[in-house]
Amino acid sequence: MIYMEGRQILLADRQDITRAGFMFLIEKYSRATYRAINDKAQLLEKLREGDADGSQRVVIVDYTLFDFNGVDDLLIISQRYPEVSWLVFSTDLDLKFVKKITLESTNIGILLKESPMAEIKEALAFTLQGRRFICQRTMEMLLTPEKKPEEEKSVLTKTEKEILIDIASGLTTREIAEKRISSFHTVNTHRKNIFRKLEVNNAHEAIKYALRAGLVDAAEYCI
Fold it and tell me: What digits encode the pLDDT tens for the residues 181-205?
């Protein structure tokens, strides 16, 4: 049993299923309180409130689906509240993000949504105790030798590449969401991340970039 009292957990995750899962684990394995957070403005408000009353806080956040303006935005906020324990609980985190978080922060842990239940419970226990947790898959990413620049593959994650291929196939955001059995918001967030990573402004430019870089096969997909 985790049994950590006096902690308030801020669940900064917009997926209802993820929230429900963490609420279940928190109620079953701890005595901490929790509150669902919908956006960055609300998160900052609750962090300021906790800073004023001295309460001990934990933030569990899905970085890929939350409205941070890049990894530096997350780092600045975490450094502003160094007493807060953070756990990034997301899918498809790229190596650049993982390296920056692990090298430039001491209070942000990383857990992938593909992690087994035992590891999720362990991550929750570590975070509630104020200890940083890095999941096994993330450690493997960090320990894998880097490829030479000419051998590097896409900066996009597997999910983002799949969505880019769907965009190149002419599917709308809503159609992609239905195909992936996902929410419109989730696919739209991935779409924005694709544009940001490729440094383009629209789908046409993203697909052209992907074709030039060999991310999608020109023989199968067209603009």
Answer: 989 999 999 998 888 888 888 888 8
Residue in the block written with tokens 């991550």? 123
Terminal Cα distance for the chain, rounded? 54
Is the dihedral angle over the CA atoms 145, 142, 17, 173 positive or is it negative? negative
| Alpha carbon of residue 181 to chain centroid | 19
Burial class (CB in 10 A: 0-12, 13-18, 19+), 166: buried
pTM of the model: 0.67
Burial of 211 (0-12, 13-18, 19+ CB in 10 A): middle
- Interatomic CA distance for residues 207 and 156, integer angstroms: 13
How far is CA 15 from its chain centroid?
A: 12
| Interatomic CA distance for residues 44 and 157, integer angstroms | 28
